Amino acid sequence: MAKSRVLVVGGTGYIGKKLVKASLAEGHRTYILRRPEIGLDMDKMQILLEFKEQGAVLVEGSFSDHGSLVEAVKQVDVVICAMSGVHFRSHNLLMQLKLVDAIKQAGNIKRFLPSEFGMDPAQMTDAIEPGRVTFEEKMMVRKAIEEANIPHTYVIANCFAGYFVGNLSQMETLLPPNHKVVIYGDGNVKAVFMDENDVATYAIKSIDDPRTLNKTLYLKPPENILTQTQLVEKWENLTGKTLEKMSISKQHFLALMKGADFAGQVGIGHFYHIFYEGCLTNFEIGEDGEDASKLYPEVEYKRVEDYLKRYL
Length: 312
Hints:
The protein is an alpha/beta fold.
């Protein structure tokens, strides 16, 4: 069976770049939406040109021009959207509704992967304000996809290692602490940590797989399901140094919202659900979901300790 042609929307972004690389590596004819809004952003332009040299096709299209989106979509079989949903950078989740309209009109798409790649919004109906907006918007996009009968797969990637592993899950830094580490509660709630390249690999493997059609794909590699305490211990074992542990109760942690801006409040809420409530691991995968580790055991995913070694 011929491999699907793939269009990546947001191909110059953090996870988008990795999706493009994974698609090319898997031998897919890979297209990247080149939006005129890129303007004079030289960094993004260079990324696009480098991908073009590697075999990707640049397709012009704009979210302010419905016709251009439809024409771009008509050239491929699969659309993957990697538009940012984080509040400390850009937050564009609802722009996907325009992409859904274009896919519906084009009528040729065999699979659409919207911008998910985090916590499962279907499990977050009781999320606290203001962070719940992320999950509500993702569910609005899902509703539009399903009402339009667009074939889809929702990829749940949990905690990106770049944001949660190297810093030992400390907020407001991407580097490991030198002396003290904040432990959320008792530090024994399990989370799931994913190397971003592995996220892209699993996502691309799912696009031609009938087992993932109209399902949620959970990325939960067994050896990367760890508590924060276990994460800190792995770092201490690598460095040979013991960090001072400072535990913060859920009440004191949530109180930090008072002095935070909107993006900070969103982040605090999400960390609360992950490290105090265990929202990534406190449920069983149902009939509408699949475990990527079981579907694709051949993937040699990066273990947390190997990811940590780059920070030594």
